[in-house]
Amino acid sequence: MESTFSKSSRVEALDNFKFSKNDCCNISFLKGYFYRDNINEKIDILIHKTDIPKTAKVIKKLLSKYNIESYVVDKEYESKNHVTKIYITETESVKSLYTLQVKKLCCDKCLQHFLIGVFISDGVLVNPSKEYHLEFSYRDGTLANKLLDIFNRAGFDFKISKRKSSSVVYTKNSETIEEFLVTVGAQNSCLELMEDKVVKDLRNHINRVTNCDAANIAKTINAGQKYIKAINKLIETELLYDLPDDLQELAQLKLENPELSLSDLGKMCSEPMTKSSVNRRLQKLCAVAQIEE
């Protein structure tokens, strides 16, 4: 099921779309919009479905610019989903649209207009809070492969895969999606995706730091318990009093201040020690008491 974010992105692209002064760009937009219909000379009636009523009105107006008759049926319901249909039923109109469809992209803006059309018609964008995923799905594998080639020539990193009976042209690259959204005029959606990515990265960073801190705390606690156990054993067996004075002093300090770090313990000694010196002496106490990890 298409996400609300996906539909709002397509609506934004439509809202920012303006008819071009160049016929080639307008025709390129129509080529993209009707891409999935695979219009050919054998078709004498065309019914195109959309879930964005405003799209049908824009398309109808653009078609009339090229004397192509169409009409729109709004608020039809199929499987409880709101569907608007664009009908082109006159044979001459369908042939005229076919004639437009076979024209090649001419100027440097044509490709962009094609991408806008195909995105508004067929683009499906997953909510970025879940994952980064933009796709175009077609039952006709030839259409999918052609679109993949167009995307690649435009510099976008898309791939293709099979899903049941459909071929899916997709990308999971967030930077590719961002660039694509800007290209088709959905800048606000791009910004929303980028903001979400920043939040995700920050959250992941915090989780990594938190996990690292938790691991270090657990490690410190476990080590502290081991040292206390070793010192208590040495006291019970009276072995502690046979050890050098510096070890006895450190053992006493550790018992009295179990929460202190090795660095702080070292500072409290009558002859201050470094962290590594304290660690070596505590390990020696464990060795004498035969306390292992």
For the structure shown, list the relevant keywords.
293 residues; alpha+beta; 4-stranded antiparallel beta sheet; 3-stranded antiparallel beta sheet; 11 helices; 7 strands; 57% helix; 13% strand; rod-shaped
Describe this structure in words.
A four-stranded antiparallel sheet has the order 4-5-7-6. A three-stranded antiparallel sheet has the order 1-3-2. It is built from eleven helices and seven strands. It is α+β, with helices and mostly antiparallel strands. The radius of gyration is 35 Å and the shape is rod-shaped. A hairpin with a 2-residue loop joins β6 and β7. α7 (174-183) runs antiparallel to α8 (187-236) and α10 crosses α11 (275-289).
Strands in their spatial order, largest beta sheet: 4-5-7-6
- What is Rg? 35 Å
Low-pLDDT residue intervals, each spanning 5 or more residues: none
**How many β-strand runs?**
7
The overall pLDDT average reads 85
* Tally of helical runs: 11
Query: Can you tell me the overall shape?
Result: rod-shaped
| Termini separation | 53 Å
Layout of helices and strands, plus pairs?
Elements: H1 4-16, H2 23-33, E1 46-50, H3 53-65, E2 71-78, E3 81-88, H4 91-101, H5 110-122, E4 124-125, E5 134-138, H6 141-153, E6 159-163, E7 166-171, H7 174-183, H8 187-236, H9 245-256, H10 262-268, H11 275-289
Antiparallel strand pairs: 1-3, 2-3, 4-5, 5-7, 6-7
Helix pairs in contact: 1-5, 2-5, 7-8, 8-11, 10-11
Brief digest:
This protein has about 290 residues and is of the alpha+beta class. Helices cover about 55% and strands about 15% of the residues.
